[in-house]
Structures are given as structure tokens and as C-alpha cells.
């Protein structure tokens, strides 16, 4: 209820939804339609999203447990930086066609997007142990809903396969992430001062 659940749920809805819009749906067609890359190049460049996420999920957990000792701070770092990556994707569209640049931006996309993993621990710690299963299951609805809804919405936005249409989708995702970041700032976490 209230700020213990909904800000994180909203953040996760847009964060994971935007990942699915880019990685799962439109990045590949963008690279083909706008940049003219072949399938092997597209696959290689998109692989760096997964590489970034594989590294970041345990890293985010480690710094939230051992370094910052805060789930919320890690969530905020991830939210702000991931939103900045979306701004770069939007600004790069039609301006940059370097494979190396997109390898770097996709790695950062996966790396900071992977910080979403701490949201489950943040929610788990905010509620009594008797309803932890319910709260984490309820939270888990939001990333899947975000992916399903945002993919449909952006599909309606893609009028043609021009750079302008893709820029419109990237800008929409950037605005969604600004909203998501506001949710992250509004989120709460359990005090760890007694640990």
C-alpha cells in the first residue's frame, strides 16, 4: 500500500517495459531499417545488452548489501543512469551509425537496466514476512505488464520504418523513464540503522 509498494511497481513497469521495447522488439528493426546492418551485426550488438545485465545483477546486489547498504540508493543510481542511456539512444538515432558506439550504449543499457533486480529485495524488506510471497508476486506482475503494454503502444506509434518514427518511440521511452525515475525517488526502504 502507499509509498511502500506503488512507486517501485511503477518504476519496474516502465523500466522492464522499456527494456522489452528496445531489446525485445524495436532495436533490431531499427538497426536494419535505419542503419542498414546485417543480421549478424545486429545480433552481435544486441548481445551486449545481455552481457551488461549478466554483470550488473550480481554487482547491484553486492553494492546494495555491502557498499551502500541501501536498496533505494542502488535503485536511484540505476534509474537515473538508465534514463540517461535512453536519452543517448534518442539523441543518437539518425546521427550515429558506429557499431562500436552502439556496442557501448547497449552494454550500458543492460548494465544499468539490470539494477532493477534490487527492487525485489526492497519490496520484500518493506512488508511482514507473512506476506512476502504475496508482495513479491504482486510486484512481479508489473514488469510483464510493462513489456506487454508498452510493446503494443509503440507498435501503434511506428507509422513507417523511418528514423523519425523510431525517434518518436525512443523519445516516448525516455519520457516513460523520467516518470519511472520519479517513482524511484518516491520509493521508501526499511531503515538499516539497527543492522
Cα gyration radius (Å): 17 Å
What is the overall pLDDT average? 92
Count the beta strands: 0
Q: Choose one word for the global shape.
A: globular
- DSSP summary: helix tally: 7
The structural class is mainly alpha
Structural commentary:
This protein is an all-alpha fold. It has helices at residues 2-33, 39-67, 71-92, 99-113, 118-126, 132-157, 163-186. The chain is built from seven helices and no strands. The longest helix has 32 residues, at 2-33. The radius of gyration is 17 Å and the shape is globular. It starts with a helix and ends in a 9-residue tail after the last helix. The mean pLDDT is 92.
In short:
The protein has 195 residues and is mainly α. The protein has helices at residues 2-33, 39-67, 71-92, 99-113, 118-126, 132-157, 163-186. The longest helix has 32 residues, at 2-33.
Layout of helices and strands:
Layout: H1 2-33, H2 39-67, H3 71-92, H4 99-113, H5 118-126, H6 132-157, H7 163-186
Helix pairs in contact: 1-2, 1-6, 1-7, 2-3, 2-4, 3-4, 3-5, 3-7, 5-6
Provide key terms for this protein.
single chain; 195 residues; mainly alpha; 7 helices; globular
